[in-house]
Each structure stands twice: as C-alpha cells, then as structure tokens.
Amino acid sequence: MKFGIVMLPGSNCDHDTFHVLKNVIGRDTVFLWHKDHDLQGVDAVVLPGGFSYGDYLRSGAIARFSPLMQEVKAFARRGGHVLGICNGFQILLELGLLPGAMLRNKDLKFLCQFVHVRIENDRTDFTRAGKKGQVLRIPIAHFDGNYYAPDKVIEDIRANKQIVFRYCDADGKVTDEANVNGSMDGIAGLMNARGNVMGLMPHPERASEALLGSEDGQVIFRSLIEVLEHKGRIAR
Amino acid sequence: MKVRILVSFKDSVLDPQGQTVKNALHTLGYRSVKEARQGKVFELELDKISEEEARKLVPEIAHKVLANPIIEKYTWQIIQDE
Fold first, then answer.
1. CATH number of the domain that A68 lies in?
2. Does A28 map to a domain?
3. Which residue, A156, A227, B63, B81, is most buried by CB atoms nearer than 10 A?
4. Facing residue for B71 by CB, picked from A57, A103, A106
C-alpha cells in the first residue's frame, strides 16, 4: 500500500513520519505538496505535525484553504483513510472532518513530554492491532491541545464510540492529573462517525523505534496497514 | 470603507488567558475588575463596496474564516466610511 504525507509550509514532522512509514514499517510512501491537486493515488493520507502557516489566526485554520486540502477533504468524503497527527488533528477540526475545536492548554504552557494514552476503542481502523484498555506511551508537543466540543457533541461522540484515545496514567487510569492539557473527557484521539478519519495529539511517529524510547506508536500505523492490505484491493 | 471585527470566546467557553489577565490585575490591586475576556481584532479595508454589500460580506468572512463558530463569537462595525 501507499501512504501520502502532506507537506504544508510549517509542517515539521513530515520527514519523521516518512522515515517511520518507509524505513521502519517498510511501506511505499510519498510526499504530497500543498499546492498540488494530486493525491498520487495514495491509499491513506497522513497530515503530519508542525506549525502550518505559523499557527496564524488559529492552529490549522489557514491550512484548510490550501489546494491539496480540498483533495484530502474529497478523499475523506469518499471514505479514504486520513490520519491527522497533532497539527494534523487541528487541521481536521478546522476542516470540519472531525467535530469540535482546540483551545490553549489549561495551564497556558507548551507541553513537550511523554504521556500515556489508553485505547478506548479497538474496533477501529486505527487501533485494531491493539487491545481495548492497552496503554501506549507516546510523546506530545503542543500549545493548543485542549479539546473542546459542546456538550451535545460530546454526548454524540461518546454514543458513537468515536473516542479512540484518552489521556491516562501509566496504569491506564484516566485522571485529571493525567489529562495534561485539560481536554474534555480526557480526549487525546478522536475519529469521525464513519471511522475513516482520525486525529490525535500525541506523535506516534516519535514513538515507533526502540532507540527513541518507545515503539507504541506503531500500533496505529500497523492497524491502518492491516485494514487496507487485508481488503485485498491494495498490493503490499 | 474600513470595518473592525472583534472575535472573542463564547461565554460558555473557558478563556484561560482572560483569567490570567484578571488575576494579574487583582495582584496589582485592581479589585473592581470582575471579569476579563481576551479576543482578537481585525481591521479590513474594503474597496468599492456599498454598506448593504458590506453587511452581507463581513459576517460571511467572519463566520467562515476569522472566527471558529464552535468556540468563538464576533461583533463588527464600520469604522470609516468611503
């Protein structure tokens, strides 16, 4: 299968993500330039972390107007798999592909640290290689990761089991203390109702090699690969 | 024509920056400050446009781009006529 990694002005995790998918996991991977209209026939799109357009206006707010993002939006609407990491998650929210919005972290600090997240739903295309309740150790690095949505929306995403990851402690307990950025319901990762678009604040590409202290992030990439290659439509 | 748009968090959304400002003002002894909210100001200069057209255009721009309607509200006014 073939992954496409979106390159926006200010993306800074694009090469890390490329390295993991291409060299560590070993799948065909290409960069997708923000000014192009061409998705190059990829099977899944990854919106990497960074500070697209300098986080001007609001994080992810300007990126959604780039030519390529119109193609990504159409791809998602056709059921294509889209994974948004950190700034990529913020863009998916601004784009309206995922519900809700991001606020400043509760303590008004840029947080750059390892956190624990718990798999809340293992019957998704992004977590099926993991187990419900499994705790992953993955780093975060963001200023605006305090997830917010109106109460009605929170009710809906709970009912639809769209919450994929929640912040927790090392033992898998969801506590206020573990919820470092103050996200509603401790939400660290969220998918759309259809289940083909997922955004998360932690950086799985920074936790995919033992050398970097954790390989837990691989679960997400391997889940996607399992789903897409299993469908048989996509060659390895 | 020049218009000014003021974007701020909805009342239902916590504004930690505004709270920090309020706490700082209290520390300085301004005890009468009951609440502080922080927002953003945009000024747009519009070319060859009637007031009627502006009343359609500005809310459209504010809603679509300048504010995120999930968390923010906006007000606007004409600050300079042609």
1. 3.40.50.880
2. yes
3. A227
4. A103
Catalytic residue among A86, A94, A116, A142: A86
The number of folded domains in chain A is: 1
- The ipTM is 0.86
DSSP string across B10-70:
-TTS--HHHHHHHHHHHHTT-TT------EEEEEEE--S--HHHHHHHHHHHIIIIIS-TT
Q: Which two tokens stand for residue A38?
A: 């061409």
Selecting from A106, A149, A150 the residue whose C-beta is nearest the C-beta of B16 gives: A106
Query: How confident is the model at residue B16, as a pLDDT?
Result: 86
Amino acid at A217: G
Q: Which residue of A has its CA nearest to B65?
A: A61
Condensed to tens digits (0 to 9), the pLDDT of residues A14-39 reads: 999 999 999 999 999 999 999 999 99
Does residue A30 lie in a domain region?
yes
The pair phi, psi for residue A227, each rounded to 5°, is -65, -50
**Buried b / exposed e along A148-165 (16+ C-beta atoms within 10 A):** bbbeebbeebeeeebbbb
- The tokens describing A17, both together, are 């993500």
